[in-house]
Each structure stands twice: as structure tokens, then as C-alpha cells.
Amino acid sequence: MIINHSLFFFTSTRMGIPFNFNHTDPMIQQITFRLPRKRRGCHLITQEVLQHLPQPLPQAGLLNLFVQHTSCALSINENADPDVQTDLEQIMNHLVKENEPYYQHTLEGRDDMPAHAKCSLFGVSLTIPITEGRLNLGTWQGIYLCEFRQQGTARNLVATLYY
Questions:
Q1: I need a labelling partner for 115 at 20 to 30 A (CA). Which of 15, 51, 104, 154 fits?
Q2: Which residues lie closer than 8 Å to 153 by C-beta, 6 or more apart?
Q3: Is the confidence at residue 69, as pLDDT, over 60?
């Protein structure tokens, strides 16, 4: 689904003199898409995200990605060495353990409450600059979906382009 919004009539004052900015070109575009189920771990999804974005990307702008779930997260991290993915998961499992006796939210499985905590530590959204029609990621940066459940489900992402 693609939603185009036209932005807006803007009135302000500068040095006491009103001026108007009337921009009628689309400046916000929003796309919701679903990533297939992934096993537990950190998964490089940069190319999957790009496949769902309109091409060409604007010359300058911002991409905001938001995952609509509470047991997975988004992250930007190194995309060259797959050991980073393994290490990130091990670090998170060390920081947030399963089967802690003080967990009260346990009806959905032993991995559910830890998944919520890990999601809160990582976060569910990213903002990436767009420069010269490309995501302005560093040389070794990639977009990751971090799945914290043993049996994750397909995940919905909302991509909002601002330009």
C-alpha cells in the first residue's frame, strides 16, 4: 500500500513579516510491507527493504523504518562480517536471560518476556538519510531485523519517506 500526502500550506513570520510556503508536490510517502518469518537472530534486511521502496529514491530526504511488533527490533550495524550477527545475539542473550524467576509475563512462552525487553533495548524504528538518491549508510553499515522469539512470525514494517 502506498499513501501519498501533499504537504501543506505553511505560514510563519520572519522578522515580523509574514511569508507563505506553499508546496503541493508529494513530500511524504508511506509504504507498509511484510517481511517473511525469520529464525531467532539478527538478519541483514537492507536489500529486502530497498525492494519495497519506490525507485528511484529522492535526491535528498529521510527514510524512517518502523516495525509493528514488540518482540523484534531494528538496528544498523556492520554488514561485512556475519560473526557480528551471531555476537549480537549472544550479547543480548547474556544481558537478558530466559526463565528468570521474577518474570510475570510468561503465558506466551519462556522467550516472550525476554523478547520484549530486548526489543526495548534495541528499539523499533530507524531514521536513515537519503543522499543523491541512495540510503546514506556507511561503507560497512546495513539494516538488521533482530528477531528475539524462537519462532518469530512474518513482520510488518512501515517505511516513511520524507522529501
A1: 51
A2: 37, 69
A3: yes
